[in-house]
Structures are given as C-alpha cells and as structure tokens.
Write a structure and sequence with these properties.
By secondary structure, the chain is α+β, with helices and mostly antiparallel strands. The chain is built from 8 helices and 23 strands. The strands form 5 sheets. A 14-stranded antiparallel β-barrel has the order 1-2-3-7-8-9-10-13-14-17-18-19-20-23. Helix 5 (85-95) crosses helix 6. The chain starts with a helix and ends with a strand.
C-alpha cells in the first residue's frame, strides 16, 4: 500500500488537469481571485484582454504558484498508506482454512481497511494545481505564456465488494477478522463480495487524469467612447499546448514505468473575448465581462478520447474609493467541470487593495465555490513590496474547511503564489 501511495505522489507531479478558472498573479489571488475588471498590465490578457486599453506603457510580470485541494480523500488515503493491506491479505489467504492462526495485526488491518474503503465518497479526489505565467504588455498589445493546471488522483471503490473473502488454491473462503474464523464458500460468492477479488481484478482502482494547459496569447484592445461611458473591447488569439494523462491503476500497483506511455501531447488554438465598461456617471466604477475558450479547444489522450476545455464566462467589478483603495469582485457565470468526477467550480470572490505608496500594497479578500461546499469560505491575502519598476508580490489562499492528513488538520484548499512585476 505504501508503494501504491508513491505512485499517487508521482502522478501528482506528472499529471495535470485544467478545468476551473485558475487565479494567476499576486494581486488577483490576494483579492479573492478577482481580475476581470481589475487585472492590469501583462495579466490583463489572461483575465480580460479588454483591460489592455486602460493602461499604457510597458508591464512585465513573472510568477509561479501551486494549489492543493482535498475532496473527500486525504484522510482515507492517509489511513490506507499507513496500513499493510497487501501483506495482510496474503497472510490471511495463505493461512486458510486454519481458523485461529492469524496475527491480531493483520486482522486489525483488514477491519480498518474495510471501514476506510466503505467511507470513501463516490465523488473524491486529490487535486494539485501548479501555475506559472510570464507576460509582457506594451500599450494596447500583450503577449504571454500562461500555464494553468490541475493534478487529479481519485479512488474508485466497488462498494459491493468490500467483504473479506480469500482464495487458496482452488478453494474459496469467507473470513471473519473479528473472530479469526474461515467459512468455506464458492467462487460466485467470492467474486461478488470479496475485497481481494475487487483489488486483483481492477474493480477497486486509482484513477489518474490530467491536463497541463499552456496558453500563448497575442492580445489587443481598443476603447470606444459613447455618451453613456467608455467601452473597451479586447480579444486574444491563443496557441494552446495540452499534455494529457489518463490511467487506471491497481490500488497496490508498483508499476511506475507506464506513466510516459499514458501521456499525450497535442496542440490547438483558442479564442478569448472581453469587454470593459466605465460609466460616465460613475467614473470610479468599471464593469468587466470575459468569455474564455469560446471555440471549446480539445486535446488528445492516450486512450483515444478527448479532454475538452469548455468555455468559461466570468464578470467582475472594480470600484476605486480613492487613489489608495480599490475594491474588486468576480463571479463565474458558468459552472466549470474539473477532472475530479462530480466536482465543479463556480467561484464568487472579491477583495480590497490598499496601496498608500508606490512601493507598497496590502491586499485581502474572500471567495467561495458556489457549485461545491467542499472548500468552505476561502480567505485570501497578500502584499507587494519594492519599487515601481521592480516589485515582489506574495499572496496566498486558505479555506475555512479542514481535513486530516498525517494526524494533522490541514485546509481542504490552499494556494500560494510568488511573482515579480516590473512597470515602465
């Protein structure tokens, strides 16, 4: 079992998935993920290309980050990783039909593993979400490299086969770990109820899926003036590279050599369109709308299926209280599927940016997934420090809901990001 968990760890580094609208950049992550009306400079082409028309000059930014989400699986994986289920099954099968011969340690392992498998929700997964970006803006134009990704590993449990039956030679036995007693049974009963049969025949498995999505957009925006206000229109044409991974693994698999065989590289093009409106009567207010991946680009997988990146639509607001304080918020207008079965995202978030001087900014915010309550309320915060032409931006997010792993309580969702920003 411990070797199985090492497989999951490798998957977490090698297989990626993009499904939700990932937050990039220190300012936006710290402000509840908001950016459709508030992102500036080189990140405008990611959040809303129409924002490129609102800021002139040169802006360069580079950032890396990582997020982790536990959806009904972390504690169970921890319990299984600390057991010796494979050895216990082998020992008990080899001792059949001699009742009263098994170690208490093996009997306890069977009982605990049965309870763990029964407790795993049908909708489960561990999600690792690395991100990175490098963007350059020059006046109304922008180019960049944006990497948004998820890593998913889920456990599929055959709930009909969590009893404990074993096979020894040509004979089949039901085993009672509480009383250390064997009862002779038949093949049909063994195959329909046994956890050992489910594990050996891929009825209970680990499912790994992912997509590493790299976007290289060329973006442009233009502003049009009307009596009611100014309307900026922007668009991005994106070259997109997708590295997909799909594989079903035995719970106790020790084979890590097939990872490369289940990867698939493919490319596609994507289209983003954005709008930004600043009313004449409310000059401190900006209203943004963006539609990403309008053409639903898809990417090949090694098993012949496609992973599609569905369109994402989001709207946002920015209100500048004064020269020092901005308030921003975003909400997804679409429900975004992820590669964890049954887990969708529809984020609502916002925050405050306090920048009293050019070399310092302090930010905070909140966000919540309207489509799934797993994460709970997510707290966000960050700060920027440096000079106008070179700033270090640090930000993070942490959920209010906690799970258990390794005996410690940990947030069900968390994210950190570090970025460097230069403006000219």
């Amino acid at each position: 079992m411990k070797k199985h968990l090492s497989v999951v760890a490798i998957l977490s580094l090698a297989t990626l998935n993009a499904g939700e609208f990932h937050a990039l950049g220190g300012q936006n992550i710290a402000m509840g993920g908001a950016g459709v009306a508030s992102a500036r400079g080189s990140l405008a082409s990611y959040y809303n290309p129409a924002l490129l028309a609102t800021k002139k000059g040169v802006d360069v930014s580079f950032g890396v980050g990582i997020g982790v989400r536990d959806n009904n699986l972390g504690e169970q994986i921890d319990n299984l990783s600390n057991s010796n289920l494979t050895d216990a099954i082998d020992n008990i099968a080899n001792n059949a039909p001699n009742s009263g011969t098994n170690r208490q340690e093996d009997r306890d392992t069977i009982l605990e593993s049965q309870n763990t498998l029964k407790s795993i929700s049908d909708k489960n997964g561990i999600d690792v979400m690395p991100t990175a970006h490098l963007g350059v803006q020059y006046d109304n134009f922008s180019m960049g490299i944006y990497v948004s990704s998820d890593i998913t590993a889920s456990v599929n449990v055959d709930k009909e086969r969590v009893g404990f039956g074993v096979k020894n030679g040509d004979l089949y036995f039901n085993y009672d770990p509480k009383n250390d007693a064997y009862t002779l049974t038949d093949r049909a009963n063994y195959e329909s109820t046994s956890m050992e049969y489910a594990l050996n025949n891929k009825k209970t498995t680990v499912i790994a899926k992912g997509l590493l999505l790299t976007e290289v957009p060329v973006s442009y925006a233009q502003t049009f003036s009307f009596p009611q206000g100014e309307l900026s229109v922007g668009g991005s044409l994106k070259f997109m590279s997708g590295i997909t991974y799909t594989q079903t693994l035995d719970i106790d698999s020790e084979d890590t050599d097939t990872l490369d065989e289940n990867k698939k590289d493919s490319t596609n093009m994507g289209i983003d369109l954005g709008l930004l409106f600043q009313p004449t009567e409310l000059s401190k207010l900006q209203i943004g709308l963006v539609a990403k991946n309008l053409n639903s680009p898809s990417f090949d997988t090694a098993n012949g299926a496609d992973i599609k990146v569905a369109p994402q639509v989001r709207t946002g607001l920015l209100y500048s209280l004064n020269d020092d304080v901005d308030i921003a918020s975003d909400v997804d207008l679409t429900t975004n599927e992820t590669l964890i079965n049954g887990f969708d995202t529809q984020m609502l978030g916002g925050g405050v940016d306090y920048h009293p001087v050019s070399w310092f900014a302090l930010r905070g915010g909140l966000m919540q997934n309207l489509a799934n309550s797993n994460d709970g309320l997510v707290y966000t915060a960050g700060m920027a420090l440096g000079f106008e032409k070179f700033q270090l931006d640090i930000s993070g997010q942490m959920s209010s809901n906690e799970g258990s792993y390794g005996g410690d309580n940990m947030p069900k969702y968390s994210r950190v990001n570090v970025a460097l920003v230069s403006q000219w």
